[in-house]
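Apologies for my clumsy wording, but can you show me some protein sequence, whichever is easiest, together with the matching structure tokens, please?
=====
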Amino acid sequence: MDPYNQAVGGNGPPEYMRINHKLGPLKVLNAHLIAYPTPMNLNYFWNWGSLAGIVLGAQIVTGILLAMHYVSHVDHAFASVIHLMYDVPSGMILRYAHANGASLFFTVVYLHILRGVYYGSGNQPRELVWLTGVVILLVMIITAFIGYVLPWGQMSFWGATVITSLATVVPVVGKQIVYWLWGGFSIDHPTLNRFYSFHYTFPFLLAGLSIFHIAALHQYGSTNPLGVNTQSSTIPFGVYFSSKDLLGLCYLLLAYALLVFFFPEELGHPDNLIPANPYATPQHIVPEWYFLWVYAILRSIPNKAAGVIAIALTFASLIALPFLSTVHVGSPRFRLLSELLYWIFVADVFLLTWVGAQEIMPATVLLGQFCTLVLFVYLLVVYPFLSWFESHLYLSR
């Protein structure tokens, strides 16, 4: 019997389940969006997943509208963006909505991932949920990078030059991969055309992966702040938690509006407002803010091949987290040492992001190397063995 129905003294299945057989093809949506059984003690940190889906939808819509005016040619790409902003009605709002929407998308997804790490949401038996989430993050990074290249500003061109050249570290076929990405022997019109095709296609791949991610989540149900089994204390998602998601959406739209209408260029780089010039190298090449922590890891290691391996190891560590963890209680509220070290890890990621935005100097390189070491120690040593240590520590008392 439904817990709410039982509490009020009702008999039989709740109304949202009784009408399920009448919905026909819509019963799948009813089962996964309305009647989906959800732990009744969820807090607002569980909003980030649904908000990420909403932002993804907004990015797809604004991207399709932008594609109607964009010209994927090195001689016309920058001019087409300027034409969009000044000649197309509401074109400036559209362009800034898409650009700042990417920042909001990464903000929401990063918070979603940090919540998952904090509460152990990817631990057994939900490993597939975590794995699909990491794959989504990787596709997001690729999509956002090639999208950053499309305006064909100074930072777009040189960012593409730096990032695509990293493929040369691949043994034997590295140069061939770079030439394939470029569509020739230098970054030119074929490169931009390929990136435009990928950038238009990948958001739909993200949408498909998101559906698979949700299906994997609903197989075993959501976790909860206490990290304990609450299968006997669930309530329908759509009836009771839609209001929480609606409140989170209101705050998200407020942040969206502030960025688009008041601070549209705050998160961008001024060099990207200059047309691409292959003969003038910017003084300081930096990616978008949401890539800075990865860029700091790459930049902190003097050897290019070792830097690429370090980045690959970072994402491999993220993929391996559910298999490395031995924790049985998901909430660090019951494991104070875990909570302390988790916040040190979060501070380390923020510090890496700051380091990635600074000029290359001995002090910033040294700080980046230290932060990279702390990151790997947490992911590969602390996270796997801390729960084992704490369980033995508490049991020995």
